[in-house]
Specification:
72% helix, elongated, single chain
């Protein structure tokens, strides 16, 4: 009971928590990106024209973010850099697609919070970034 009420944590607990956050946020978003990648034509016609760059370019950027950046996040490779496109994609999705609905069923705001935490804190020791000394 004393340990449950303690505010102290070990490095191992912190690194495990960062691993779990990376895996869960990455795998859930990877699924969205894979769906868009495999159904590119359908997705392209449903995609918004972000900043006037066209639906095809917008779709490619979203797939890059949701699929490839999520894969980097899962591995813990270039984690902080991979979080930036994911944050931008989720903010655009919240504002343009879900019309500022913070409690949307996709929980876009939770993705934003998870990616912000990973951007500020980093991937933890259980990551490729840590193994290569970044």
């Amino acid at each position: 009971m004393k340990k449950l009420l303690s505010t102290k944590y070990s490095a191992g607990a912190f690194n495990t928590a960062m691993l779990l956050l990376r895996l869960v946020a990455g795998l859930l978003m990877l699924q969205h990106g894979y769906e868009k990648l495999t159904h590119f034509d359908t997705t392209m016609h449903d995609m918004i024209n972000f900043l006037g760059i066209g639906q095809k370019a917008s779709t490619i950027l979203v797939i890059f973010s949701e699929f490839f950046c999520s894969a980097l996040l899962i591995m813990g490779l270039f984690t902080r850099f991979a979080c930036i496109p994911l944050i931008i994609t989720m903010v655009v999705a919240m504002w343009k697609v879900h019309h500022n609905d913070y409690l949307h069923e996709d929980a876009v705001s939770l993705y934003i919070i998870a990616y912000l935490i990973l951007l500020f804190v980093g991937p933890g020791k259980i990551s490729v970034d840590s193994m290569i000394g970044k």
